Amino acid sequence: MTTQEIIEHYQNAVVQIATNSGTGTGFYLSDYGLIVTNHHVVRGARQVNIKGQVFPRQISQVLFSDERYDLAFLSLPADVSHMATIALGSYETLKDGDTVLAIGHPYGLNYTATQGVISKVDRIQQGLKYIQIDAAINPGNSGGPLVDSKGSVVGVNSFIIRGGDNLGFALPVLYLKEALEQYMPIKGTVAIRCPNCRTLVTHQNLEAGSYCPNCGTKIEFPKEDAPAAAALSGIAKTIEEALRRIGKDPELARSGHNHWEVEVGSARLRINYNPENFFVISDAFLCSLPPENVVRLYTFLLQENDRMHGAVFSLHGQNIVLSSLIYDVELSVESGEKMFRNLFDLADKYDTLLIEQYGCLPILEEE
Fold first, then answer.
1. How far apart are CA 101 and CA 25, in angstroms?
2. What integer pLDDT is reported at residue 226 of this predicted model?
3. Which of 145, 172, 361, 364 is deepest in the core (most CB within 10 A)?
């Protein structure tokens, strides 16, 4: 396979993972019927939301986690018929200087592939072998596949050294194969791999309710009656309850720490909370400027800004954005619900109006 063929093929195998604490990457292994990612991407969650090139955002269950090797397995989306088949390669044949691709979703961006070489094939970190690479990986790449020139997965992109010049590290595929071999006999069962003795611990074989049956290490499963993801508090909890009241699933809306994204008709609403400036900002990206008659459009937007309450039009580059803002100390479930409902109604109204009456263009979105 050429580099371009590998990149195109993996688009339908790599998934984006979002929790209330951040984002990451995973990849589909058809031979095992699982999605692979890093443990630290899904830490503390029973469920996460996933999105792929060929399936919409949906909930996935965390089936297996291994803190020591930083691995996790997730359940599959409802329909995998259009997902690509990828193969696991061989770590033993890798050499320093081999060309590799690091594939993932850095900083929540939709699908990025960076090419580089293996700087050292067996760099030891915390008692484990890692593949050191110079291909650029960033936050959000975690859990994505490291792919060799044949198109096979040879590692799981795991961490970087901050301040280093493209110092990235991937867990070798040999550790992944070992974990898969151990988990497959009980596939579908929620399990944790003991960080000390590597025994596979399930709810059924827990010793005295919370200890590894082999070595006695304390093992903590998320409680069945606990929230699907790590518990929220403060402003984030208020925002999600407000979204729930207007019929939006907050777990599916999560797109990272203090970030949410929902669709309103053909518009996309992005909600962001920055505790450093105390604002909750909601932006509905409606459409793009028309190729002509822009003065007429500007006049209309300014008139609407003078007339509207609780929202304002602005420009983000060529895109027309309808925004609402509230101080965090003023945000309650009731005020959040009112703000979101108002913005949703206005976005739905103006998105169509601006396109039909002012010649605005639909915003170009990544598929």
1. 14
2. 46
3. 145
Percent of the chain with pLDDT over 70: 92
Residues 163-177: tens digit of each pLDDT: 556 688 999 999 999
Query: Which residue ranges in the chain fall short of pLDDT 70?
Result: 106-110, 139, 162-166, 223-233, 264-267, 364-367
Rounded distance, CA 226 to CA 203, Å? 15
Residue 307 sits in the same domain as residue 169:
no
Per-position b or e across 311-337, b if 16+ CB within 10 A of its CB: bebeeeeebbbbbbebebeebebeebb
Q: Where in the sequence is the domain holding 352, given as residue range(s)?
A: 234-358
Residues 169 and 131 sit within 8 Å (Cβ to Cβ): yes
Is 101:214 a contact under the CB 8 Å cutoff?
Answer: no
The answer on 260 and 294 residing in a single domain is yes
Give me the pLDDT at residue 189, please: 95
CATH number of the domain encompassing residue 35: 2.40.10.120
